[in-house]
Design goal:
This protein is mainly alpha-helical and 329 residues long. It has two domains: 203 residues, HUPs (Rossmann fold, 3-Layer(aba) Sandwich); 80 residues, Tyrosyl-Transfer RNA Synthetase. The protein is 54% helix and 7% strand. The chain is built from 13 helices and five strands. Helix 1 links the parallel strand 1 and strand 2. Bound molecules: adenosine monophosphate and tryptophan.
Length: 329
């Protein structure tokens, strides 16, 4: 069975963007692949996190994973920081990564302008991500568009490593949803919907209640055409809402345009809000059932036990290939 790995940083509340771009894919893919889903808490601390809040957010993501439909019988769910081999391998891979490659990462370039005190960990973040992937021999990595460049870097590292040390690493490939790989902010529809936006008027959080969802959707920025037509360049706001509706109802963009051909923006926005509420309600009900249950620890205990064995074996093989330790090649 082919392997797949992905993770999400516990830096804030999960948004509808992370759901459509990543988690929704996980649910489908876990049926077909040997799947590994983790909470990327080591990635979260590349920027300062309040320790107590980080622990709470980490637990929340696991509860949301389960509430969205990740099934511990089908997929392995664990915390990145509980498996020390991720960081161990990250060091070895960082010695096979060039400064120039990290300098070219868009996420780093964007943040460098905004934050003059970026950590070294933030800079080497994509190398740890490569380690997260290759440590399980994953062939596929389901992510939203913003993470594709990091997977591409992982591919370059794999290619270089395999050339230097023999074919030890599996080449990963990203899986990006056809619709919804980059859900936009409802207030600034040229920007990515993101969980770290303070006030969050433009982001729908998976735990937002019905009233808030409706308010955010109804006040989403659109244009004055009153025509439900997909045109990212000239109508980014309405195109974003079409994308959200299309993904959540599993309809094509064309089908959504046809459904709303003679409807005005008010009617369309109401339908989008109805759809979001319909999808979020069962997720929220399950979330509140799981968040204080023993299930979270049980799932994580089971997950970490399994992945540590796999990761240790892979790390030993790699260390040996590189010439580390006392064993002969
Ligand atoms: P993050 O929540 O930033 O850790 O991202 C978790 C996953 O969700 C990654 O695979 C991202 O690419 C994806 N993702 C986050 N925000 C969005 C968005 N606005 N649209 C589509 N995918 C997203
Ligand atoms: N960097 C990813 C994000 O911010 C999270 C992540 C860490 C990840 N390691 C990964 C995703 C490995 C896929 C595979 O969303």
């Amino acid at each position: 069975m082919k392997k797949l790995v992905s993770g999400i940083k516990p830096t804030g509340e999960l948004t509808l963007g992370s759901y459509i771009g990543a988690v929704k894919q996980y649910i489908e893919l876990q049926k077909e692949y040997d799947s590994y889903f983790f909470v990327a808490d080591l990635h979260a601390i590349t920027k300062y996190q309040d320790p107590k809040e980080l622990r709470e957010k980490t637990k929340k993501i696991v509860a949301l994973y389960l509430a969205c439909g990740l099934d511990p019988k089908q997929a392995t769910i664990y915390l990145q920081s509980e498996n020390p081999y991720h960081s161990h391998l990250s060091w070895i891979l960082s010695c096979n990564t060039y400064l120039g490659e990290l300098n070219r990462m868009t996420q780093y370039k964007d943040q460098k302008i905004k934050d003059s005190n970026l950590s070294v960990g933030f800079y080497t973040y994509p190398v740890l991500m490569a380690a997260d992937i290759v440590i399980y021999d994953a062939e596929y990595v389901p992510v939203g568009e913003d993470q594709v460049q990091h997977v591409e870097l992982a591919r370059d590292i794999v290619q270089r490593f395999n050339k230097r040390y023999g074919n030890k690493l599996i080449m990963p490939e990203s899986i990006v949803p056809k619709i919804g790989a980059r859900i936009k902010d409802l207030q600034e529809p040229t920007k990515k919907m993101s969980k770290s936006d303070g006030e969050c008027k433009g982001s729908i959080l998976l735990l937002d209640d019905e009233k808030i969802v409706r308010k955010k959707v109804m006040s989403a920025i659109t244009d004055s055409d009153n025509l439900v037509k997909y045109d990212v360049k000239n109508k980014p706001g309405i195109s974003n809402l079409i994308t959200i509706y299309s993904s959540l109802s599993n309809l094509s963009i064309k089908e959504v345009e046809t459904e709303f051909i003679d409807k005005n923006y008010g009617e369309f926005k109401t339908a989008v809000a109805d759809k979001i509420v319909e999808v979020l309600k069962p997720i929220q009900d399950k979330y509140y059932e799981y968040i204080n249950s023993d299930m979270i620890d049980e799932v994580l205990d089971q997950g970490i036990k399994k992945v540590t064995v796999i990761a240790q074996k892979k790390c030993e093989l790699i260390a040996k290939a590189v010439g580390l330790g006392r064993q002969k090649c």
